[in-house]
Amino acid sequence: MTHERLRKFNTQDTYPEQKLDNDLSQGVIARGTLVFLRGQVSQDLGTGCSLHADDPAAQARKAMENVKLLLEEAGSQLDHVCRVVVYLTDIRYREPVYQEIGQWFKGVHPCSTGLVVTALARPEWQVEIEVTAVIPEDDD
After folding, report:
1. The CATH number of the domain where 119 resides is what?
2. For the chain, how big is the Rg over CA atoms in Å?
3. For residues 67 and 42, is the Cβ–Cβ distance under 8 A?
């Protein structure tokens, strides 16, 4: 096994009052080369143009598309994400954003921390997602 996920849980159990379905864990023991991604936002990586103003779920989806692409470019993948930090500019965005993120990490169980901040680097950004992953060691 590449990673050991400690105390796995699902947000349906820990936050029953919210419509969330995120597979998370309290900790991860990972073996391999670390990959640190800059916080990803709803931005076209080629042009730098911001996308999906005023739609936090769509912003989360684009940020996750960027995360997936960058991890693949680094030689890793979503299955090897160990830690996620989600920055929101409004607590009301939590449900739609986490619903979107939960689809990308189904069965992965990364550690996750969510923060509500006053603002992000551009006023149109409502969501920023930062991940730490690994490139697994060969099992040879």
Report:
1. 3.30.1330.40
2. 15
3. no
Structural domain of residue 95, as residue ranges?
3-136
- Spatial separation of the C-alpha atoms in residues 11 and 100, rounded to whole Å: 13
pLDDT digits (tens, 9 = 90+) for 30-69: 888 999 999 999 999 999 999 999 999 999 999 999 999 9
Interatomic CA distance for residues 29 and 81, integer angstroms: 11
State the DSSP string of the chain.
--EEEES-EEHHHH-TTS----EE-SEEEE-EEEEE-PPB-SB-TTT--B--TT-HHHHHHHHHHHHHHHHHHHT--GGGEEEEEEEES-GGGHHHHHHHHHHHTTTT--EEEEEE-S--SSTT--EEEEEEEEEEPP--
pLDDT of residue 21: 92
Query: pLDDT tens for residues 83-93?
Result: 999 999 999 99
Q: What is the bridge-based pairing of β-strands 9-10 and 23-24?
A: antiparallel
pLDDT, tens digit (0-9, with 9 covering 90-100), for 91-128: 999 999 999 999 999 999 999 999 999 999 999 999 99
Count of domains in the chain?
1
